[in-house]
Amino acid sequence: MSESKPLGGKIFTRAFAVAFLFALIGGWFLIQRFAQGLGAVSNMSDGFPWGLWITYDVVIGTALGCGGFAMAILVYILNKGEYHPLVRSALLTSVFGYSLAAFSVFIDIGRYWNFHHVLLPQYWNFSSVLLEVALCIALYVAVLWIEFSPAFLEKGGGPQASKGVNRIMFIFIAFGVLLPTMHQSSLGTLMVISGYKLSPLWQTPFLPLLFLISAVAMGFALTVFESFVSSLAFGRPLETKMIGKLAGVIPGLLIAFLVVRWGDLAFRGAFGAAFGGGWPMIMFWVENILFILPVVMLLPRPNREKAGTLCLAAFWMVMAGAVYRFNVFLVGFSPAPGWSYFPAAPEIFVTLGIVSVEVMGYLIFVRALPVLPEPERA
Amino acid sequence: MSINRRDFLKLTAASGILLASDVKPGQAATGKEMPPQAVGFLYDATLCIGCKSCMYNCKKYNTMPGGALYTEDGRNMNEWNGPEQIWDAPRDLTAKTLNIIKAYAEEGEQSFIKRHCMHCVDPGCVSACPVSAMQKDGKTGIVTYDADKCIGCRYCQVACPFNVPKFEWEEAFPQLRKCELCRHRLAEGDIPACCEFCPTGASIFGPVEELRKEAEMRLRLRTGSEYEYPVGTVDGAFKLPKKVDQYVNHIHGLEEVGGCQYLMLASVPFDKLGMPTLPKKSYASTSEGIQHVLYNKMIAPIVVFGVLAGAAFRSTKSERGERDE
Question: CATH number of B39-281: 3.10.129.10, 1.20.1050.10, 3.30.70.20, 3.50.50.60?
Fold first, then answer.
């Protein structure tokens, strides 16, 4: 496939330098974390054992990395070959999103030297939702790098070099759809066991379904958004036509999400809490408005041909999924009276550092490897 | 094409076997049973005088080798007891306090409450732990922790309905800590420190079946009548006579989240004493039920994989360099 081309150009730009600086600051706090323990850099506590790192870097980070998953469903499972030029850049975001999520888990777990236990059968507990999440994410990181490997091979040996791996790629594509289906839904199931600690506005056996639908929607939205940002950042022509068609998938997914979400709330009689006051109430409405916005913006077909509307709707969609995940893991979580959590500055800087590494990796890869579609064909 | 299809089927089958190894034989989805010889505690708040002897002795005996607070450097021991140390006065369970007496006094009512691991029949922590560091002993029913297995993910803390497991946030090489029912003392033929050193019989140890009978019997006692309360163990020979208080008609821990091996009686409603109001069905069984439906024998994932691989095989034809037929 010769539809992707390295962008070329200087790697050490000003944007790269800023990202590098943030990565260094994050690194400094990571040294503290390993020298003095988690309490030294984070506001996590026995009441809020999971904080920003799990919620943002893992739960939201992997959902943002669902571009590869969403595009694989569209291009390879539903056989919509016309979107093929977008696959590789979506995959790249996924590669970094997931690899760094795995790294975040490593820094978040207290006994990181036992990390490998998750991969060793003698330790496995099959009742554990977290085991399934961890195994699926670990496998999927490997699958993503394999799916992305043609970019490396074509760099070295031209378009023909990836022929061998492409022959068996359908196996990895199938895994690349199955594994995210499993762990993105299970990320929702994770909180079922917390029971009463999660507000009835979010606690439901439908968590896995809601997490899965919103992950796919976020994957599409991020692919749309990323296409615009990279076009603007690298001064390339906009891919509005293809992206507009792609964005047509989003309203349907969101309507499905909202039907399940509101149907479940009504069925459980949990609407009362939506007027109960406090942060959970506010964030519940913010979340729902964010989910409704992209539906309203993208349903009329002419809107999908306007670059600005498309880009903004995709942004609201990504925010909706992110806020939903924050709400399930932190805002709606209350272990007992007296506990509260807001991330400490070093915690935030570590997260910023990780995001910066993602940005730097993306910049290096699109310049050096055939990732972005050739402008004249796109 | 036929060769390709055969290869494809073989591959699908092979991956199926790979995935099927995820299945644990005879895994029950819901409804855990308590081991018949399970042991536990009965705490009767109407007998508790708040002397905290149980707290003192819990720390003393659990910082000894084998105890749930033991460290080789003796750090947990030195931090609360030694010539240079001040007496610590914890306000809640912590990674250094596995057992705590709290006081409640309001609206003319007062009571103590003793908090530590409930040793649930269907424990959230055991269900949640990805690496089997939290386990339920098949004989005694004690919920145990093995630091050598633990990765420190803290999902047990998220999963515990009683907020019992505590993490060493200030340590570079942390552990989780929780009451393990003095299993090191049981192994030596002793009873848990909190029960052995309780002077009034507020905390007693014994087989859960007998503790349940004792608790149910106490609820039937006439308020104001005299009862010989056993001290130390439920069948202890040493008994202290005392006038029976007005009990709240509820045994906390009998049915909560599928039952616990720590039972409580009190004269003040348990929600006022800080105990969560819990359903009879454990959250762990709800969570495992969802997993069981989705991943029963890995059938659904294998079928889905087959469909996906078939579809991907079809749509990558051009990339494999094949001509359309």
Answer: 3.30.70.20
pLDDT tens, position by position, B138-164: 999 999 999 999 999 999 999 999 999
Give, in degrees to the nearest 5, the angle at Cα A75 between A231 and A372.
25
pTM: 0.90
pLDDT, tens digit, 9 for 90 and up, residues A8-36: 888 888 889 999 999 999 999 999 999 99
Q: Does B131 touch chain A (CB under 8 A)?
A: yes
Q: What is the CA radius of gyration of chain B?
A: 26
Q: Which residue type occupies A89?
A: S
The type of residue at B23 is: V
Q: Contact at 8 Å (CB) between A333 and A194?
A: yes
Give chain A's end-to-end CA distance (angstroms, integer). Answer: 14
Which string of DSSP letters, residue by residue, matches A148-211?
A: HHHHHHHHHH-GGGGHHHHHTHHHHHHHHHHHHHHHHHHHHHGGGGGGGGB-TTT--TTHHHHH
**CATH classification number, A14-368, choose in 1.20.1630.10, 3.40.50.1240, 1.10.569.10, 1.10.3720.10:** 1.20.1630.10
How close does chain A come to B127, measured CA to CA in Å?
A: 5
pLDDT at A377 over 80: no
Determine contact: B158 vs chain A, CB below 8 A.
yes
CA-based nearest residue to A222, from A94, A318, A297: A318
Alpha-carbon distance of A216 to A254, in angstroms, equals 10
Interface residue A99 vs chain B (CB under 8 A): no
Three-state secondary structure call for residue B226: strand
Please indicate if any CB of chain B lies within 8 Å of the CB of A174: yes
In this prediction, residue A185 carries a pLDDT of: 96
Number of A/B CB contacts below 8 angstroms equals 211
A79–B311: do the CB atoms touch at under 8 Å?
yes
Residue A241: both structure tokens together: 């036509």
In A, residues 15-54, which contact B (CB 8 Å cutoff)?
34-40, 44-47, 49-50
What phi, psi does B267 have (nearest 5°)? -100, 0
User: B164 CB contacts (<8 Å, ≥6 apart)?
Assistant: B93, B116, B117, B118, B125, B178, B179
Could you count the other beta carbons within 10 Å of the beta carbon of residue A166?
18
Q: What is the ipTM of this complex?
A: 0.93
Cβ-defined contact of A134 to B154 (cutoff 8 Å): no
- Contacts B151 to A, Cβ<8 Å: 109-112, 114-115, 117-118
Q: Quick one: tokens of B92? A: 């809640």
10 Å CB burial of residue A46 (0-12, 13-18, 19+) is buried
B3, burial (CB in 10 Å: exposed 0-12, middle 13-18, buried 19+): exposed
- Listed in order, the ranges of chain B carrying CATH 3.30.70.20 are 39-281
> In chain A, what residues touch B143 (CB-CB under 8 Å)?
none
The answer to whether residue A60 scores a pLDDT higher than 90 is yes
φ/ψ (deg, to 5) at B143: -90, 110
Report pLDDT for A317: 95
Which of A126, A127, A153 is the best substitution to test chain B (most B C-beta atoms within 10 A)?
A127
